[in-house]
């Protein structure tokens, strides 16, 4: 079963990070990715551009509306994700607990609705 870990955090917490801080963050995430790969459960990941770069589109009554910014105005924003292949929710929870984002934000776990494919 594939699970997606949606990584949410408050982007203001990253505002003062130096290049050295970012390098350490990348090392921490690199180690987590390495552990997922070593366990044979890694499928994909991505780190998203800041929420200020988002564009939101909706179509209602045949009219398309395009807005700058995210879908929802919240403090915590979606910053990235991991897709992993695990046997069950308990295993997904165990791996999400190890995700660095859990230390300063939230990790939402969702099972695929498309089965194993």
Automatic annotation (TrEMBL):
Coiled coil: none annotated. Residues 1-110 form the YCII-related domain. Pfam families: YCII. It comes from the Bacteria. Belongs to the YciI family. This is Uncharacterized conserved protein.
